[in-house]
Amino acid sequence: MSQEQPRRPSGQPQQQAAGVEQGAVRYSDVFPAVSGGLAEKPVAPQDAATMQSAESLMLGQTLRGGPAAAMQSAATANERMGVVGHDQATDATAVQGVTVSETRVPGGRLVTEFVAGQAVGQYLARDDASATAGGAGVGARGEARGGGGAAGLVDNTKVTIGEALEATALAAGDEPVERSDAAAIQAAEARATGLDVNVPGGLAAQAQSAAAANAWAARDQDKTTLGDVLANATAKLVGDKPVESADALRVAGAENRNKGDGTARPGGVAASLAAAARLNRDEAVWEQ
Predict the structure, then answer these.
(1) Contact 176, 224 (CB under 8 A)
(2) CA distance 58 to 70
(3) How far is CA 239 from CA 158, 236, 276, in A?
(4) How far is Cα 275 from Cα 245, in angstroms, rounded to an integer?
(5) Is 115 exposed, middle or buried (0-12, 13-18, 19+ CB in 10 A)?
(6) At what angle do helices 245-257 and 269-280 cross, to 10 degrees?
């Protein structure tokens, strides 16, 4: 007599009633910085499809090895295990959605991707790299800075510390300033100005005051955000310089040492300076 494998009821993800199946690929497995309820959710096929659409609309293509590709691999694995259905979306992403934003920086764009309001990826695309992608490549939506194209842009193509801080204001501007952010901003300002002390009324002083006040604030809406402190950071600095690897390392060390879990904030100060340092080293981060 032939033996048949047990059949799972059609249309019902395996162990749905008992919770998420052990071994399912969760958001925290794909993006370690994700926190809260989203971290324990299995990546669903419609989440990945939405991120693919967002990447394509913004960049003209889906990035190889980017967040959308990672989510697609995870969702495919979960679907094969029967954890999620083909047309299923995670409740958090269904409500809050996925987004891709870009910030113009000298010589390129800083792109940040979000799932349910949490940053899961940040990349830099150079204008000259985009121009060679061809067709509807990553440069399809990029505008030429100043209307004159890349001609004549030499030293100005370097991203400065002030510009990287302004990128943070856009990528993580709604996040309340914490002690780790203040430490990172202090390190960034010191590297930009060459001064070992806080500038009175400068970015570091503002960030430290904000972090101290936020620690006592009862409501989130009463807290000072990174956007409040870092908007127009370039104009607020008494000195500025292009971001180098040593600058990014110093800032990352300051942020990590003052963070409870020792990890940098996604889209935060350390992440923005690291991305700027990569761009300034002419490292291509887009797959051609």
Answers:
(1) yes
(2) 18
(3) 15, 9, 17
(4) 10
(5) buried
(6) 160
Q: How confident is the prediction for the chain on average, in pLDDT?
A: 76
- Which among 114-118, 185-189, 196-200 has the top mean pLDDT? 185-189
Tell me how crowded residue 144 is: count the other CB atoms within 10 A of its CB. 12
Among 173, 124, 131, 167, residue whose Cα is nearest residue 149: 131
Asked whether the CA dihedral 81, 85, 91, 97 is positive or negative, the reply is positive
Distance (Å, whole) CA 265 – CA 274: 12
Q: What radius of gyration do the chain's Cα atoms show?
A: 21
Quote the pTM value: 0.51
